[in-house]
Design a protein that fits this description.
With 378 residues, the chain is of the alpha/beta class. The protein is 57% helix and 6% strand. It has 16 helices and 5 strands. It has a 5-stranded parallel beta sheet, sandwiched between helices.
């Protein structure tokens, strides 16, 4: 058991020993202090102590990785980090100050430091941060109370299908999490597929239902260890339309956005970008982006998982097969996203959990709600 945190923790990042010492002397009576002498060290400390740091004081001008690069790195990982940053610098030029604010800094303090100003601004940001944390905790509780039953029932249903299909107990979770990772990378690399907060929340959730139609496929076909006959393969392919019909014909939920999206994913997650998929032969972006994301995540996990008819392929072999088109043609942008994630995928999937993904999703929604529109992430 760790000791309970009693005082806020500030990370002071500056390549000058003297500047760090001056700031620490001003703040150490009421705050615990961590120090980083470079931007790279600051990122390392944030990664190690992400839940403990309350404020970062960050110098603009440092060798190797300056303060602006640190801010950009923190912004790229906003779903995991939400730490207020105060920039510190001898530069009083307006362009420096504007750039700091544009990258997400909440305040800007110029050197030489005035103890009264430093304390006042740090205390003010800290009060705001603690209030936001309180609001986030309240909102998290309310959102989880509202949605946890739906989330739980979706995962129970998908797990039943998974068990009947003889698949690894991790398949649904892996497809959900890889879908989420690909979606976030897609939004980072292009603005071609704008998604609302609700859509970002729904896509990984409905990924769990992509194979729900398999519940109607005969067991001897579903778990056949050898190659399908043409008749068996045609029967297996019907799981896409069966799943679609099951969901979209629910009388009480026909207008529900989550059910509509889940139906699209069920029907079209085996479509291919060149039109050679099934059941409808959709081409390119005729395939909804949610179905495209789930499709590539499903193929990757199917390749890297053991099945009754095959051994598991390595990550490297799976990536090679997908990139070579051995599993059909995918959206080139999604292939780029998959390759950008690259060798990080196996570790991220091993370390992920449904609860963590759900909680991160909630915090992202809260973040956008509390800070919109001024600090909405791109």
């Amino acid at each position: 058991m760790g000791t309970e945190k009693t005082r806020p923790l500030i990370l002071i990042t500056d390549d000058s020993d003297i500047n760090r010492m001056i700031l620490a002397d001003m703040l150490e009576d009421d705050y615990d202090i961590l120090e980083a002498e470079s931007g790279k060290e600051a990122i390392r400390i944030v990664n190690e102590k992400r839940n403990a740091i309350d404020i970062i004081l960050l110098d603009c001008v440092m060798p190797d990785m300056d303060g602006f690069e640190v801010l950009a790195e923190l912004e790229r990982n906003w779903a995991k980090e939400d730490i207020p940053v105060i920039m510190i610098s001898a530069e009083s030029d307006q362009s420096f100050i504007v750039k700091a604010y544009q990258l997400g800094a909440l305040d800007y303090i110029c050197r030489p430091f005035n103890a009264v100003i430093v304390r006042h601004r740090v205390d003010t940001i800290m009060r705001m941060h603690l209030k936001e944390q309180h609001l986030a905790n309240v909102a998290t509780s309310q959102i989880m109370d509202k949605h946890v039953n739906n989330h739980m029932m979706i995962n129970i249903l998908s797990s039943i299908v998974e068990f009947r299909n003889g698949e690894s107990g991790q398949h649904i979770l892996h497809v959900q999490n890889l879908t989420d990772m690909l979606m976030r990378e897609l939004l980072r690399v292009t603005d071609k597929y704008p998604l609302t907060d609700d859509e970002m929340s729904m896509i990984p959730t409905v990924a769990a239902l992509h194979d729900v139609g398999k519940i109607s496929i005969p067991y001897h076909v579903l778990n056949k260890p050898g190659r399908f006959t043409e008749e068996e393969f045609n029967l297996m392919k019907t799981h896409t339309t069966i799943g679609y019909d099951m969901l979209t014909e629910l009388p009480a939920y026909q207008k529900d956005p989550l059910i509509r999206m889940a139906g699209q994913v069920c029907r079209w997650h085996h479509e291919r970008y060149d039109g050679k998929g099934y059941p409808d032969g959709l081409v390119g972006d005729e395939i909804p982006i949610a179905a495209q994301l789930v499709s590539i995540a499903d193929v990757y996990d199917a390749l890297t998982s053991e099945r009754c008819y095959k051994e598991a392929y390595s990550h490297e072999k799976a990536m090679q097969m997908i990139n070579n088109g051995e599993c059909g043609t995918f959206n080139p942008i999604l292939l780029q996203c998959l390759n950008n994630l690259g060798d990080k995928i196996p570790e991220m999937l091993d370390n992920s959990s449904a609860e963590e993904m759900f909680r991160e999703d909630i915090y992202r929604i809260i973040e956008n709600t509390l800070r919109a529109p001024q600090h909405r992430r791109q």
